[in-house]
């Protein structure tokens, strides 16, 4: 589905993604359905290639899952890349993601501290014996009848960390089929007045999992950097419809 989505997805110009730029750094709001780096199969559009066309020495400092939208840091020179990489390594980068999850969950500084084992081929599992330490802090932001908007603060940076940690709390991200998250359909939340023509198949409101890198904070060259990325259209639309029909 995601491959088809990428083809259907009209990609904006790289310059339109930029939320901050200075002599050392480019900060973008990454759209969904676009890989951060070159994937092994190659050929497909990705942020690194677009960034290098924009600025020849560009290096992507970290990665977001292909379906995840939000803040991505891109260094314009090797010194900045090294500085930000060290900040990530030493856990000096404060990142907040927003996720929409199934069910009503009251998380007040809930710490999920469960080791994650990378099984290869983009698969991970919780493995207390062999996994690498992984810690995420969760806070509920907004409650609906059947869903919750949650702030997720990863302390470590393991693959799929937020997604699998939420799944362990029986709070899978909507649309995240890998972790049993179910998509949201308008017919589910709009009980009255929803009709579909006979041959039409209903599409989910969001055609991906609802995870967005919202906020990042770190120090660069003795300056405190703070960035926020607005929700993309699909995430904002889902919240708007939940406000209207599920609150």
Automatic annotation (TrEMBL):
SUPFAM superfamilies: Pseudouridine synthase. It comes from the Bacteria. Belongs to the pseudouridine synthase RluA family. Pfam families: PseudoU_synth_2 (PF00849). One of its GO terms (molecular function) is catalytic activity, acting on RNA. InterPro entries: PsdUridine_synth_cat_dom_sf, PsdUridine_synth_RluA-like_CS, PsdUridine_synth_RsuA/RluA, RluA_PseudoU_synthase. GO terms for biological process: enzyme-directed rRNA pseudouridine synthesis. Residues 24-167 form the Pseudouridine synthase RsuA/RluA-like domain. CDD domains: PseudoU_synth_RluA_like. It comes from Sphingobacterium athyrii. This is RNA pseudouridine synthase.
